[in-house]
Every structure is written in C-alpha cells, then in structure tokens.
Amino acid sequence: MGGGLAGSIPLLLGIFLRIGISLGPHSGQGIPPMFGDYEAQRHWQEVTVNLPMDQWYVNGTDNNLLYWGLDYPPLTAYHSHLMGRIANFFNSSWITLHTSRGTEEYTHRIFMRMSVLVAEAVYLTPLLFLSNRITAQHSGTTAKVAHMLLVVLAPGQALIDHGHFQYNNISLGLTLCAVALLLSQSIYWGSVMFALALNYKQMSLYHALPFFFYLFAPRYNTLAGLKQVVKLGIVVIATFVLCWIPMYTTIPDVIIRLFPFNRGLFEDKVANFWCSLSLIIKIQNHVSTVTLVRLALFATLLAVLPSQFHLCRYPTPDRFILALTNSAMGFFLFSFHVHEKTILIPGVTTLLLFSESPVVVTWFQVISSFSMYPLLHKDGQSVMYLGSMGLYLVLALVVLRNRLLHQDRNFTHKLDWALRHVFVGSVLGCVLLHLGEMLIEPPIRYPYLFPTLNAAYSALHFGFFFCYFHYLQYTGLPELFRRRTKVE
Fold first, then answer.
1. Which of 6, 37, 421, 481 has the fewest beta carbons closer than 10 A?
2. Alpha helix ranges (H) inside 135-207
C-alpha cells in the first residue's frame, strides 16, 4: 500500500500541474504570420498528412521551409503524421493544406493539449520508476513521496511542453527509458530506446557519449565483451535503418535541416558561454561561421571529454548518471546554436540525483526554469510560471527544511546542505530581477536589458553547476542503485 501511495500521489499532482499549465496561452497565440511552436507542430501534421514522404523535408510550392519547415529527425515526422491522421479524423479543416495555417479554435487547442498530455506517459513512467528505484534505500513512505514530488513537479519541462507547447517529453522519456533499461541490465533494449530518442530529437546527442562509454568500457578488453559491443552496434544501426529507410531518397535534405549552421551561434538570449561572451565581445561579428563552428566544437569537446574518459575508467551507475548530466551541460554551455529550452536535457538527468544532492538539484531546477522566463513571458505564460515556481519553492522549502531527503551520510551531503544559504540568496536574486523587470522601464538604448541580465545571471549558475556535478563524478557518490544494476 505504501509503494502505491508513494507513486500515485506525485503522479496525480504532476498531471494536475500539467493540466493547469495547459489552460494558459501557447506560444505565438494570435500572433500572425508565424505564430509559434504550437503552429509549428500543427503545420508538421498538415505537411506530413498531405504531402508524400519525399517532400516532407524539401522546399517546394506546397512546403515552404521558411514557414516552420520540419527540422527534427524522422521519428518526429512520423509522430506528426500519426497526430495529423488523428486530427483529420476529428476535423479535416485542422490540417487542410495551406488554408489551415494559424488554426487555433477551442476544440483544436483541446486536441493538441491532450496529445501532449498523453505523450507525458512516455516521460513520467520511467521517471517515477527510476525515482522509486533510487529511493528503495529509504525505509519510510514519506521520503519516497517527497522525492517523487520534487521530481514530478519540477516546473521546467511542464512549462515548456504544456505551456509553450512542444513534445520534449517523448525524447526525454525515451532517454529515461534507456537509462532504466541499462541499469536493469537490458542493454539491447536500452540501446534501442536511446537510438529512438536520437531519431526523435537530434539534441539527444548531448547524452550520446555517456551511453557509448558506459556500454563500451566494461566490454572492450574481453572477447565475449567485444562480441556484445558488436551486437550492440548492430542493434543501434538496425534501429537507425528502420527509422531512416522510408526517407532514403531525401536523406541529404533531412540532414541539412537537422544541422542548420546558418542560424547563428545561439538563439535569442540563451544562458550559455557564447551568449554571455557576446556581452563583452560579439565574436560572431569578427569570424566566419565555419570558424565559429570549429571553435564551438573544440570548446564542447574540451568541456565534455574529461568526464567521459572518467566514466570509461569507472563505469558505475552513479557515475553514468553524472556523466550524462556533465555531457549535456557541456553541450549546452559551449556547442553551436543552442536554444534556451535545451537546458531541459541536462535537467532531466539531474532529477535522478535528488536523493544524494537535494539542495543543488532543486536549485538547478529553479534556475533552469528561471532562465526560460523570457520565452515564457513572451508566450503569456507569466502567471503559470509564477504559480508553478511558487508551488515548487514552497514544496522544496518544506522538504529541505525537514531534511526528508537528507541524512548527512558523507561529505557530499554536508557540502550540499551547506549550500542552502547560497541557494536562498540565489532565489532572492531571481526575485529581484523579476521585480526590476516589472517596475523599471529599460532604457531605449537597451530594450532587452532584463532578458540579457536573466541570461547572464543564469549562465553564472550553470557554470557553477557544471563544476559541482563534475566534482561529484570525480569524488564519487554512495551507490544510487542496487548493486545488481552494475554493468558486468
């Protein structure tokens, strides 16, 4: 009964939170001619249902790629096609070629919002499974419920998918499924799940190196292990072939759409290294795009590879989770053309570290949501943002103040707990920036003053988190998972 309670209460509250957020406006609502990501998802349904597959990624009279052209891998296109077929069943006018642009009627919004809510099962199921597994060491139901509430009610993903409107829950959920399967010794199915995540959103590449090293490291030095590596390679290649073979005639067009180097070094005011550097020197104005790509690649590899080599030497489950986080953070901070929403990728694996570092992980979830506020504010999601953030901070205050997840078993716990005052000061800084934006008119010369301050403030935090999670990986954590989950 306790186990059922531990899972059902957080799940229900998580669903209610997402439903509440979905009652607000979506991105670009009522703002022609481009509208926003909601229209992008609807338009992909329109394109994939009405045009033959070899035209989905190709510019043409019926598919103007400048109007929300598909720019994700084939699995996203297939999902859009499925959603388009279902939409066509309910109301064909929602996806009529050309004339359906900007469709936002009430029943269509219900359909679209429900489609994201149903897809949430792909995300919440493995997340709750992993959380329950991590908290198996706790004796009481209270600790499990507290842990799962902090995981499920983290506002970032809920605000972007159910407010702004996207399907990040599918790619993040597939990645979590892969993690859960690998830690349960189902390495082949885990590889399939991660290959599917890569084929849904190319940003899943942020997690690719840890998956490779975690699977490869324990197996490269024996003949039986190498045979397993070969089998894993065949499984991954077969999954990619199945996803891509329907697109075989347009593969070059798809790849060009997936890696648009012509879009610039970063998107809007994103809280990473390059955007912060632009406050001092706009490097993109001084060097060519090719040079920028090379610089970004070099910086990213420099940031990511040390933690991956460490994982290769010590391929334990806890270091695997930390290496996933550190790899994704390195890509977010230093790679080419990063969106503010990409912070969700490292954010999802930090959720698996709550039991060992609750203060810093809660802090990370708060700052990552704060960093996306300019986007959410533009969408008219300020009320939903403030409500979900307020709920999360109150919950975190109750949980952390009563140390429901904290037992001070080692130095890492003590360090984490010592940072609680810095966390409070950091949150107060967020509050002050929000109040400044509400009460102070920015100078005419600097119309984007507060989004820029938000990005710089958040980037400083992400730099700290990047160092902190590296510290945890190098010094080691108490084993998060039962010993039977260790790769053999």
1. 421
2. 141-152, 155-159, 168-183, 187-200
Burial level of 67, CB count in 10 A (0-12/13-18/19+)? middle
DSSP class of 351: G
The full DSSP string for 220-263 is TTSHHHHHHHHHHHHHHHHHHHHHHGGGGGGHHHHHHHHS-GGG
Instruction: Quote the pTM value.
Output: 0.93
**63 bridge partner residues:** 60
pLDDT digits (tens, 9 = 90+) for 128-173: 888 877 766 555 677 778 888 999 999 999 999 999 999 999 999 9
Q: Give pLDDT, residue 138.
A: 53
Three-state SS at 338: strand
Compute the distance between CA of residue 44 and CA of residue 48 in angstroms, rounded to an integer: 6
Beta-carbon count within 10 A of 292 CB: 19
The whole-angstrom separation of Cα 383 and Cα 32 is: 23
Instruction: Give the whole-angstrom CA distance, residue 199 versus residue 204.
Output: 8
* Model pLDDT, residue 457: 97
Question: Is residue 478 pLDDT above 90, yes or no?
Answer: no
- Report the distance separating Cα 162 and Cα 174, nearest Å: 18
Q: What pLDDT does residue 284 have? A: 82
For residue 485, pLDDT over 50 is answered with: no
Alpha helices per DSSP H over 266-288: 273-277
| Contact indicator for 126, 132 with CB cutoff of 8 Å | no
